[in-house]
Amino acid sequence: MSKLDGKVAVVTGASKGIGAGIARALAREGAAVVVNYASSREGAEAVVAAITAAGGRAVAVQGDVTVAAQADALIEAAVREFGRLDVLVNNSGVYAFAPIEEVTEEHYRRQFDVNVLGVLLASRAAAKHLTEGGSIVTISSAITDLLMPGSAVYSATKGAVNAISGVLANELAPRRIRANVVSPGYVTTEGTHSAGIAGSEMEAGFVADTPLGRVGRPDDIADVVAFLASDDARWVTGEVINASGGVR
């Protein structure tokens, strides 16, 4: 028996990268998965196709988690399609870097809307349906420990979601619902390739600073999320787990 048999999971921002890896990992462990996307329908449907080809269950559902009505509709779609909700993975996120002299209102609001407000709205919607044994896993970033120049806004968003998850862990504990954070280090994804980071000197620098000596992969993060979503982590809540190859 797989560790997530009979469970239903929603993964936000799951059309590519870490989110897609998480969706596939949860499905491999037996969960029925709602693959959320904001704009990349093609990517989400490719993830669903891969899951169903492997014998799993999944559907793609469009929804912008920064809009309350759409976050609510996403969760309702999961319950309507699969009859329940057990796991929410808050993965949707954006990043942009700028020195403090170049920080703008748009730079701030875009990242805080997606990275913070999106977590709050999706978690609010999910909390109405999660029951005992439910799990909320939020993807943060090891950047909160690195304090990199140019990352003030992005780092602030991830520090905020760490705090939100800790509050949710206490707030939802009486209902036996857990909330935890996974903080990746550098992970190679479609985004790092399109940005020209993969294979660059910058990536080589990340590897040099990583004690385990390689770049991260989406499955490195996804397997930690699958653990936290499962009953194997029944006594784990309010934690921030670095999945960073040892980066601090």
TrEMBL record:
User: What Pfam families does this protein's entry cite?
Assistant: adh_short_C2 (PF13561)
Instruction: Cite the InterPro entries for this sequence.
Output: KR_dom (IPR057326), NAD(P)-bd_dom_sf (IPR036291), Sc_DH/Rdtase_CS (IPR020904), SDR_fam (IPR002347)
Which Gene3D superfamilies does this entry report, sorted A to Z?
NAD(P)-binding Rossmann-like Domain
One GO term in the molecular function aspect is:
glucose 1-dehydrogenase [NAD(P)+] activity
Q: What is its EC number?
A: 1.1.1.47
Keywords, A to Z? Answer: Oxidoreductase
Q: Which residues form the Ketoreductase domain?
A: 7-192
Q: Which family does it belong to?
A: Belongs to the short-chain dehydrogenases/reductases (SDR) family.
Question: Would you tell me the protein name for this molecule?
Answer: Glucose 1-dehydrogenase
